Amino acid sequence: MLGLWGLRRDGAVWHDEAVTIGLSSRDLPDLWQTSGHVDAVHGLYYLLMHGLFDVFGTGVVVLRLPSVLAAAAAAGGVAAIGRHLAGPRAGLCAGVVFVVLPGVQRYAQEGRSYALVCALVVWATYALVRAVERERRCVWAAYTALLLTACLVHEFAVLALAAHALVVRRAMRRTFVTAAVCVALGLAPLVLVSMRQSTQVGWLDATKPYEYARFSLMAGVALAAAWIAVAGRRTRTAYERRLVLLGLGLFLVPTGLLMLLALAKPLYLDRYVLYGVAGLALLLGTAFDQALRRGRMIRAGMVVAAVTACAALVPAALDLRTPASRSDDVTALAAVLRETVRPDDGVVYLSVKRRAWELAEPGPAPGTDLARARGPLASHSLYGTEVAPDELRARMLARHRIVAVASPSGVTVEDSAMARVKRGMLADHFEACGRRTVHGSVITVYARPGRC
Questions:
Q1: Would you say 63 and 16 are in contact if contact means Cβ atoms under 8 Å apart?
Q2: How many angstroms separate the CA atoms of 303 and 90, rounded?
Q3: Is residue 213 classed exposed, middle or buried when 0-12, 13-18 and 19+ CB atoms within 10 A define those classes?
Q4: Which of 3, 69, 120, 397 would be a feasible disulfide site paired with 108, CB 3.0-4.6 Å?
Q5: How many degrees, rounded to 5, is the angle at CA 280 between CA 5 and CA 214?
Q6: Three-state SS at 347
Q7: Any idea where the domains of the chain sit in the sequence?
Q8: Which of 123, 113, 96 is closest to 43 using CA atoms?
Q9: Residues 6 or more apart from 254 whose CB is under 8 A from it?
Q10: Which string of DSSP letters, residue by residue, matches 309-332?
């Protein structure tokens, strides 16, 4: 029910969801060709959504409901792992903790692949937990298949292998290595294709100091929860050791590795390793269960702490269900453009990513996109291709009024040759008549001097 609450977000769709709609709505041959040029890393997810859109249409509920179901499946998997390793109450607590975490609530309501990847990794982890207890080929095969599928939906799921290696008994390491090699070989073709498309993540900035600080803080929370989960016990069972290793490994290792990789090339986004929070949920759920077994004062303190934490999360939960919770709102941009642009106006996108609204909105675009050479379908791309700079200059000079669409302040400004031509022409031959800001975009109306 938590996933269904506020699922529509007033019908607002943000940039990445618009891409999901645009690519998944294409015919299969065109989707295949486009994946060869761009966004191959999400190709399997787009194929899944293509089938759903064909049957149920492209509404926001159809767009986001698979993520809701995937998050619910992931919560069930976390509870199953906790139950198997620490008992029914610990499993229930871990599942509840997982559901209320803000990151899970966010991506459970987005039309992107991250909740699905999380569910696949969690159930692969459950299969691994069962596989390391006894040598059964069918369980190892299930583990390999689940993790490979997760990697094919998003290749950074492969980082979970490093966390999983921590809980494999020595006697089964050869079997685990075989499974890992199978996953790597199955993933290799996608990696080769996506490496040729690495410019897609060129917009990522270096990991910010506050991101390192936040991860360090949460690592401290995870370590404290791990200590509480096993504190006071004279002996620790293999199950308890496995839970602590698994929880710490899942939460710390994939994120830590991605942050290390980001030192060489910016690659880190928390959603790429969303599945790591399953480890934190396991530790917190088990710690809460252990605290409830202690004295009355400790139990009362833990209940008060849990209620306080849930109350503190309420504002975040409310905010996540508003259009302003995402970085932009392409549906709002589309509405303002249709209201602002006159039939004979030219439109210039100072940031090509602002064209994403066309992927989610049916019907002809208002005005004339002066820089466009070929559209997204004809060019098998996300935003289409653009004309040569000289052609763009001629088209802009032929207009008396131009509507420019740019990213808001604080967002990295595109510095390509075409972007510089667009900005230079507007500065040299036009004057700004008015500006309007919508969530994630700035729309400025330009006219020839004296004609505002």
A1: no
A2: 14
A3: exposed
A4: 3
A5: 90
A6: strand
A7: 9-324, 330-447
A8: 113
A9: 156, 159, 160, 162, 163, 273, 275, 276
A10: HHHHHHHHHHHTTSGGGSS--HHH
Are 154 and 114 spatial neighbours (Cβ–Cβ below 8 Å)?
yes
Q: Which two tokens stand for residue 184?
A: 């790597």
Phi-psi label, residue 57: left if phi above 0, alpha if psi -120 to 50, beta otherwise = left
Task: Say if residues 306 and 300 touch (Cβ distance below 8 Å).
Answer: no
Orientation angle between helical segments 60-86 and 15-24, nearest 10 degrees = 110
Percent of the chain with pLDDT over 90: 62
pLDDT in tens, 314-354: 888 888 888 888 989 999 999 999 999 999 999 999 988 99
**CA dist., res. 215 & res. 204, Å (int):** 18
**Res. 406: pLDDT tops 60:** yes
Which of 40-49, 103-112, 296-305 is predicted least confidently?
A: 296-305
CA distances from 178 to 129, 271, 370 (A): 16, 28, 55
The tokens 């370590």 sit on which residue? 223
Helix (H) or strand (E) holding 382: none
Instruction: Report whether pLDDT(414) > 90.
Output: no
Residue reference for tokens 């001097």:
449
What is the Cα–Cα distance from 221 to 218, expressed in whole angstroms? Answer: 5
Name the nearest CA neighbour of 102 among 11, 218, 208. Answer: 218
Q: What is the pTM of this model?
A: 0.92
Q: Which residue has the tokens 């959504």?
A: 49
Tokens of 311: 């109350």
Looking at the chain, the number of H-run helices and the number of E-run strands are: 19, 7
Phi, psi of 194 (to 5 degrees): -70, -30
Q: Which residues of 130-157 are buried (b: 16+ CB within 10 A; e: fewer)?
A: bbbeeeeeebbebbbbbbbbbbbbbbbb
